[in-house]
Every structure is written in structure tokens, then in C-alpha cells.
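Predict fold of Cell envelope-related transcriptional attenuator; 263 aa.
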Amino acid sequence: MIGLEEFDNAKNTDSMIVASINTKDNTLKLLSLMRDLYIDIKGYDKDRLNSVYARGGIPLLYDTIYTNFGVSLDGYLLVNFEAFEQIVDLLGGVNVTLTKNEAEYLNVHNYISNPVYRNVVEGEQLMNGNQVLGYCRTRKVSTGTESNDFGRTQRQRKVLQSIINKLKSKNMISLALKMDEILSAVHITTDITKSDFKEYLTIGMDLALDNIETLRVPLDGKYIDLKIPSGKKYKAVLGIKDLEETKEIIYSFLNPKTSDDKQ
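Predicted 3D structure, encoded as C-alpha cells:
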């Protein structure tokens, strides 16, 4: 799942979350890859992960994620800001819980682009697409446990879980109709067919979605803050201390041993 930021002709993938369904234990896992990861890119100098899509599209992004993290992808969804707003609104909004600092910040800054909607409050509330997008993009105020871009990716995972919970509350027929409405009304770039979507929905109805596991890369204590040249200036990136160790942790997260495996 890829969130595309399009400003001044730039096409940066500022949100990248890998969703993995495990049919052995009926679980869904979400792996967040932070945009500022400093990684190898085939045919280019090392750079931020979010720069890959603009250079070589989905094929290069697939290759880069596999080469650096050992994760083989078999489908993608790509949406820009407008499409994300539309999806949330078609769902009737989603519930988001804000801290006092988050609410105050969102009400006085332009992350919520429509001033009419800068009226969020502390606590849990139903938020529309414009409000949720602003929340997901916020990084200059702490979530209470994470700050900066780490906080932003945490917010994105929370919103995704809220969206999944809302979809899960529908019965199979209502869910299929809602997905058809979204796929017809919203511009989503994907290589997943409608028949595959319906198959995933059928599987999804049996998943234990009340306990979605998440993992963020880089891992705590496993990265270093770096500054690399960018024209006449320098830009901040996140270097992974031990890439092989990170690969192993990701593999164990996405492919846990079940009780059957241990016998």
C-alpha cells in the first residue's frame, strides 16, 4: 500500500506499508517502511526509499524492497492524497483518537487543508477524509510515544487499522458492495484484479483483525541518523546499522512459526 505525495511535479512515496495475510493462523500483519531509509537502488546512487518510485516506477520499487529487505511483493495499491480523502469519505469517515497536542496543532496548521474542518478535539471522534489525511501527514507534534516521521508512520498504521475495523464491521454483501463503490469511484492504481479483491475480502472476513500486528523499519536502536549531500545542502536520512539482522527480523515477523511448524 503506497501513499503518493505529488507536489511541484515530484512523485514521492511518503507512505509505504506492506500488508501480509497469514492464512495459517488467520492474522494480518502490517510492515511500515519509513520514507527516509537510506538504501541501495539498482542503477542509481544510494538514496531515500521514497525517491525510488519516481525513478523507476513500481518495478524498481519492488526490486528495491526485495533487494534491501528480502520482501517479495505480489500486489500493490497506490493512492494520492485526493484518492485517500475520497476513500475515507466513502466509508463515512473513520474513528481516530487525538491527544490534546495533536488536536491543537491540527486546528491551527494547514495539514487539514480545508479550514472549515479545523475543529477536531482531544479524544476519539469520527473524522472525515480531509481531517484524516491531515492527521496522517502530521509529524511535527508527538503522538505521545513517537515524534517526527516515526510519529507520522505510527499515525498511518493507526488509521489503516481503523479503516480495516470499519470494513470488518460490515457483512460480506455490504462489504463487497462498498468495495465495488470505492473501486469504481476512486482513482486507485493497482495490479490487483477485482476477482482477487473479492477473494481477499472473503479471506479477510475470517481474520483476527482485532489484533493486527505491526512492525516499523527501521527498528528501535537499529539505525543511525545521517546527513547526505543534496545539491548545495544536506538532507537527513536513516541508515540501517545491520541490514542482514533487519532482514531476519522482518522475515520472522512475516513468517512466524506456528504450533504445527514446531512439532
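The chain has two domains: 1-76+191-263, 81-186.
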